[in-house]
Amino acid sequence: MATTKKPAVKTAKAVKETKEVKTTAVKEVAAAPTTKAEVAHAVKEEAAPKKRACKKAPATKATITVQYQGRDYTDAELIEACKADYAANGFDDAVETLDIYVQPENGVAYYAVNGFGGDKKIDL
Do 114 and 96 meet the contact criterion of CB atoms below 8 Å apart? Predict the structure, then answer.
């Protein structure tokens, strides 16, 4: 008697695993870049370094000193003198901006408060 071989029967689990392997392989192939532009974009994304958070440098405090013929005038002194002169002349507006123009050769400083009053001056 000749023995006949029974055909191999796959279990449902084996069939499912085979299908998963095939679909995964298809997805990987579909995700691969196909044009030169897509390849270049993919390379740029891989090569781009990660951005780091920048820390701001602390504010630097500076002082300006005008020296002329043996006299010294610091910026803080000029600012306070201009504010005092402004208040002494009867102005009670809030000082938002202060522009100071120093003429050390004449010994005066002209100032403008909030953009007005270029004719106001203090003697140095």
Answer: yes
Q: Which residue is it, tokens 């610091």?
A: 74
Which tens digits make up the pLDDT trace of 63-113?
A: 888 888 888 989 999 999 998 988 888 887 788 888 999 898 888 999 998
Instruction: Decide: 109 and 82 in contact? Cβ < 8 Å.
Output: yes
Q: What is the pLDDT of residues 12-65, one digit of tens each?
A: 565 556 555 555 544 455 556 567 667 666 666 665 566 677 778 787 888 888
* Tokens matching residue 71: 């006299």
Percent of the chain with pLDDT over 70: 59
Are the beta carbons of 76 and 62 closer than 8 angstroms? no
Amino acid at 42: A
Task: Return the exposure string of 43-62: e unless at least 16 CB atoms fall within 10 Å of the residue's CB, then b.
Answer: eeeeeeeeeeeeeeeeeeee
CA distance 96 to 113: 7
